[in-house]
Structure formats: structure tokens, C-alpha cells
Amino acid sequence: MLVWIELLFCVFVVAFWWYKNDQRRYSKYPPGPVRLPIVGNVLQMLIKSTEFPALALQKLADEHGDVMFIKIAGGEAVVCSSCDAIKEMLNHENAIGRLQYEFIRDRHANRNLGVIWSWGPTWRNLRRFTVRNLRDFGFGKSSQMDSVINEELDKFLEHMRQQIRSAPNNTLYGVTDFFHLTFNNVLWRLVSGKSYGYHDPQMMELLRLNREFFNSTNFGLDLSETFPILRDLFPKWSGRAAQLKTSKDLFDYGRQMLEEQRQLGTYKEDPSCFLDVFIAKVEESRKDPNSDFNDDQFVTTILDLLVAGSETSSKTLTFGMLYMMLYPQVQEKVQEEIDQVVPDGFPIDSSMKSKLPYTSAVFLEVFRYSTVVPIPTAREATDDFIFRGFFIKKGTGIIANTQAVHFSEKLWGDPYTFRPERFLSEDGSGVDMKKADLLLTFGYGKRICLGMVLAETTTFLYFATMLRTFRLEKLPGANISLKPTLGITLGPQPFNVKIFVRVPKN
Ligand code: HEM
């Protein structure tokens, strides 16, 4: 008995010494939950939510504040949970690095590659080059984007009509994603000038790999990120083996694409697309061993655009279709507004958005309510700095909890209700821009989503055109769950939907 009391006493003394030491060490850091040895704050997060890191962090922030310090994912991180704090942080000149998750270290073999996860001058060079040259091929310019989008939309509507014709009782079963391939085509048209058929085996495989990559980790609550040793010891169980395989397959695909484009030779005289411009830059930089333009950067940058581009947009809009099925009165109001504004036989284009305030408000509510990127891929402090009086050390992860903002009771009153009117101005004639500015769907600051304008335009035109062309109905008695599927981004659970071709009433 005495031995046990002595042992307990020793444990207590060590724990007390450790706690005091930890408090002293982090006294200038933002407040946060007590950090436990080895596991940091993982247990506290798991207690708050075993599945959703954003929800766990939101609940911890309710106790510790908008700017909170935690230890997870093998490192230290500061978590911002209010709109003001996130904007101020993501705009900070020392908050523009990217945290290197273990699965990204593996994907890049520890190199500084691509646009999404790169840092320093390499990131700056690649981002600037990508934005400038994609613009030359219409990316981000309304008129050119609208025409590419509407051409792909025509093909998509025909594909949908065919699907509906062959569907029993107009019902599509197990829908998880309506738009993945068509959004990929829009993006790919602007990057390479090409688009793919709806059953193209190569593209289907690429999209499958992309989806697998997205579903392969759950960031903060992924134990193999917190304890990287698990990745070495149990590659299969930890998911590392699958991540390595998916990344390899994606990179093989990217290399094949590079070689095919190089063989065409169009990059030499008359670059016909972004791929050509990039290859020309790689050739021009051959003699410079320190150049940021080489084959691996080409492959990673192109894969980054694909990884970031189609899955995010298509999941958002599939959620949108699901909500329209669940809230038929909202669907009807959108259809009425579109019928009144858009002349019969004309395609919807970006310039009509301001004349469709209710549709725009619904669309913003879809972005808020779905929040497919609840925690944008974390930033990293590139230097020591003081933020709101707290010390942030170089190398600290920076997490923006977008979901906490999009579901804040303080900001929205009834965040868990789907209510598009919250985004309308008082007289209903336009969008309330102050409310729209509270959305952080695309991040903020210098690393804000590179494809934001394309994503907003594509999803809006598809959303409006889908509802103008089709009516969506829930199956009688169907029980629909709004609980999302997990992964880097959130998506809808498979659902069944009745779809009917409608005739616009104008
Ligand atoms: C609804 C669709 C989309 C959502 C919700 C979304 C969201 C985001 C978010 C939250 C970030 C992180 C921003 C930050 O750190 O502040 C990001 C980065 C990025 N997005 Fe998107 N995105 C979407 C569509 C697209 C599209 C269509 C592209 C196509 C090119 C794209 C390319 C990128 C790239 C390359 C980055 C990394 C930017 C950098 O680190 O400099 N995204 N996106």
C-alpha cells in the first residue's frame, strides 16, 4: 500500500513540475487547453468530437477564445475562430507558409513543390507565373470563362437529360457527385484547351484517384499525423501505403501528360495553352539548377490545380442540389426569379447575377451551409511575430476554423437553419454585402484560393441553369442525412433524387 502511495505522490510531483514548466514555457503564447505530454491536445479534441476536427476546435475555442494555442498533428498550432481574427491572421505577412502535413511530405518526397503546399520564393514564383499565364488563356476573365462554361454546360445538360430518360421513375439513385467530370472539363479547357467525354476511362481514373487522395486523411484527428511513427510502423493501417500509392499514380499520370504535350512540340513556336507556356519555361530554365521551373514543378502544379479545382466546386454544388430537393419552396422561388429575368432561349451569364438577388442569396447560403472546406489547409508562421499581443513562433501551424465562423450563433443567430434571406438586403433588391463578406469559403489574404473567380462563376452558372432546366424532388418518405462524408473536404452522403425536365414559365 505504501509503495502505491509513494508512486502516486511521485506521479503527482512529476505532473505538477511538468505543468508549471509548460505554463512558464508558453506564458506568452495564446491561451489554450492544458497540453498533455506526448498526446498534446488530441484527447481533448476527441472528447469534443471524434469525427470532425473543425467542430472539436470550435468547442475548444468557445472555452479558450478566438485565438487559441494547441498541440496536435505532431506540432504546435494557433487556431483562429472568429471572422476578424482569421482575416487579420491570414493577411499577416508572416502567416504565408504552409504547414507540411506528413501525407504531403510523402507526396512531395520532402521537396518544396507546386502551388498549394509550397512556401517562400518558390511559392511566390509559381503562383505568380500560374495566375499571370492562366489569365492569358481566359482564366478569371468573365467573357471567356462564361463561354467555356456555357459550352460545357450544354454538354452536361444533354448528359443529364439522357440519364433522366433512362432512369426508372425519373429517379437517380446513390448520387454523391453530379458535377465532378464537367467541372473538371471547365478547368481543364482553361488549362489545356481540351475536354473529356463523360465516359473517358483515363479521366474517370484520374478523378477516382483524386477522390481517393481527398478521402485519405482527416487532418487534425488523423492519429497518423499526430504520431508520424505510426506511419512507418503500420503503413497499411495508418493509410500511408494507400496515400503513397495514390500519389504515385497521380504523379505518373502527370508525367505522362507532360510527355504527351512535349511530344506535340507546340510549346516551341506557338504555345497554345498553359501547359505549353509552362513547358517552354522549363526548357528555358534548363541550365539553371536552382530554377523553380522543372518537370517535377510542372507535374505538381498541374496536379494541384486538378486536386484543388474540381472536387471542391462539385461537392459544393451537389450539396446545393440536395438542399434544393429538401427545401422545395426555395427551389420554386429561384426558378420563378430566373424565369422572370432570363429571356427564353438565352444562356445565363455572369452579368445577370446582379438581377438575380434571391438566387445569389441562395447560392451564398449554399456556400455557408455546406462549408466543404471547414479548415483550409493550414498555413505556417514563416518568422516569429506578435499577434494580438501573443507570441507566435516561426514554424507554428496556423489554422483558420472557417466552420466556426460559418456556424457562429453570434454572427447568424440561427446558423443551423438553411435560410437564404439572411444574405438579402433589407428591401430584398440585392445582396447584403456586409453579410457576404463574413463568408471565408476561399480563405483570405495573399494565399486566397487561386481559383476563386472561376469557382464562383462556374458554380453560379451551373446552379442557376440546373434549376432553370430541371425540377428536383425528394422520394416520398426518404430519410436524408445532412451529415457530411469526411476527408480533406466534406461531401454529401449518397442520396436518391427524382429529377424532371421543366419548361421555363416566360
Ligand atoms: C468551391 C470551390 C473551392 C473552394 C471552396 C476552395 C477553397 C480554397 C481554400 C479555402 C484555399 C486556401 C486559401 C488560404 O490559405 O487562405 C484554397 C487554395 C487554393 N485553391 Fe481553391 N477552392 C475552390 C476552387 C478552386 C478552383 C476551381 C481552383 C482551380 C484552379 C482552386 C485552386 C486553388 C489553389 C491553387 C490554392 C492554393 C493557393 C495558394 O496556396 O497560394 N480552388 N482554395
UniProtKB/TrEMBL annotation:
Pfam families: p450 (PF00067)
Database matches in InterPro entries: Cyt_P450 (IPR001128), Cyt_P450_CS (IPR017972), Cyt_P450_E_grp-I (IPR002401), Cyt_P450_sf (IPR036396), Cytochrome_P450_fam2 (IPR050182)
Keywords, in A-Z order: Heme, Iron, Metal-binding, Monooxygenase, Oxidoreductase
Keyword presence, tRNA-binding: no
Entry-linked SUPFAM superfamilies: Cytochrome P450
Keyword Membrane assigned: no
Superkingdom, natural source: Eukaryota
Family: Belongs to the cytochrome P450 family.
Protein name, as recorded: Uncharacterized protein
Species in which this protein is naturally found: Orchesella dallaii
Lineage: Eukaryota, Metazoa, Ecdysozoa, Arthropoda, Hexapoda
